[in-house]
Amino acid sequence: MSDGRWAYWNAGLAPLLGAAGVALAAVAAHRVSDTQLATASQFLIVHAAAALALTAFGAGGERRTGFLAAASLMIFAVSLFSGDLVVRAFTGERLFPFAAPTGGSLLILSWVVAAFWGLRGAFSARGRG
User: Fold this and answer.
1) What is the dihedral of CA 70, 77, 79, 13, to 10 degrees?
2) Cβ-based neighbours of 37, under 8 Å, separated by 6 or more
3) What pTM did the predictor assign?
4) Considering Cα of 69, then 75, then 78, then 79, what sign does the dihedral take?
5) Pair 102, 96: CB distance under 8 Å
6) One-character DSSP codes across 64-120
7) How far, in Å, CA of 51 to CA of 101, rounded?
8) Which residue among 11, 17, 51, 113 is least crowded, i.e. fewest CB within 10 A of its CB?
9) What is the pLDDT of residues 72-124, one digit of tens each?
10) Terminal-to-terminal C-alpha distance of the chain
């Protein structure tokens, strides 16, 4: 898949996560008082914005596929993490064992990947002014 198409996938999916986060915030505030829903909502909104920013940067003129990879990993990870919390809040069951911790660990990894590519670019650009 080309970087441009990859960026469009991220740019299409991340706002859906943000919308889900806002909807969950409304449910948590007005219908179901559950801290898991509030946590899932916050994670979805914050990581949707971060994934959009990483995607925008990754779709820049230079090849910056590391940022697109970090954004894609972030989208997957926050879906897994928040999805497990939502399923637990509504059904008492889990998506699968360790789904939320796996999603959370992948979220941390996605931030580390983004930091790596940012710092790599900063250090490789030192001599270019």
Assistant:
1) 10
2) 24, 27, 28, 85, 86, 89
3) 0.91
4) negative
5) no
6) -HHHHHHHHHHHHHHHHHHHHHHHHHHHS--SSTTHHHHHHHHHHHHHHHHHHHHHH
7) 20
8) 11
9) 999 999 999 999 999 999 999 999 999 999 999 999 999 999 999 999 988 88
10) 33
Cα–Cα distance, 99 to 82 (Å, whole number): 9
DSSP 1: -
Angle between helices 35-58 and 65-91 (to 10 degrees): 170
Tokens of 27: 């449910």
